[in-house]
Amino acid sequence: MASSSIGPTSATDAVLNPEAPPSPTSTASPDPLQAGEQVILQPVPSDGASSAVATPVPSASPSDSVKAADELKDAVGQQNRTVGQVIESLDNMAIDVGSMHVSVWDGIVFLAVAMGMIAFAWFGSKASHALLARVTRVDQTRRLLLEKILTIAVWGIAALVGMDLLGINLTAFTVFSGAFGLAIGFGLQKTFGNLIAGIILLMDKSIKPGDVIAIADQAGVSTFGQIRKIGIRAVSITTRDQKEYLIPNENLMINQVENWSYSSRNVRMQVPVGVSYKADIVKAEELMLEAAKSCSRVLQSPPPTVWLDGYGDSSVNFIIHVWITDPEAGIGNVKSEVLKKLWHLFKEHEVEIPFPQRDLNLRSAEGLDQLIAALEQKRSQTKKAAKPASE
Hints:
disordered N terminus; SH3 type barrels; 47% helix; alpha+beta; 4 domains
């Protein structure tokens, strides 16, 4: 196979200036290069006659900064030179971290944008709530659900707009997606669980603001309260004594809940009453119904009823069943009103209200007989001793 060589000067000229005419060395070559021939490249001596073009190496300089800060600085500098110089001096007070240029001006713009986005999100959520209340005619539960969705959407938009103004590259967050997922899985698991549970509770309307549910305190004593608010983390329940319980949403979703007003607000309550065995139970039953109907909060439909519950040790036991539609106003006060009215009716019609009584039957026994004889003997001796003294 034929081979040819290219001289150092001709090779260098061919590389550096391909459009220049061939040098004499190259023109002296008798045979042009053919396909498949072997070409030998020779190094160019550094004689200073020819200079190679050096490839420029870019120097690393901090250039990344807050996007909004740079744009605002340029805009203000074009409008007012004095203010532009002040901003320029603030921008010069900076530190360089890698490729980031962080200055005092960047910090001021960052805080201004953050506060502006927070204010925008707050006023936007309030305005959306007011607009939703005016243009929609949905019930309270669905409106609360829509308000929460709108609030999350408004805050999300504000965060995205703020990051765009600050020039934050959203693709950079993909690096932290794994760590954020772990944080949700471990540290924020309950928080996000309660958030989703609250949304589910509002969607299926199992509990809603205004419902009355039964709860138990730390001592295990059962009581009831009215739901005031369903928040992001917990449900606020207020009892009759103005104690407020904050129950996590997840607990209400996975545990059994006794809702007194889920499908109907009518609640039946029981008032136990006992009368003497000597009383006329028919008359007593009529007086019980009269006392129950006289209470203003007791519903007339369904009407009150009286049941004979059993025969007790000292009384004949009855239960008065009454219906109310406002359990959040209390049930103890209704019971008290019925019993006070019944007291006066029983007194008026001479119906005896019994109290615990016991009958003692003493049987004959040897020890008991001896005790009685000793007591009688001592009693007689005391009388004999007292008689001479009186004489």
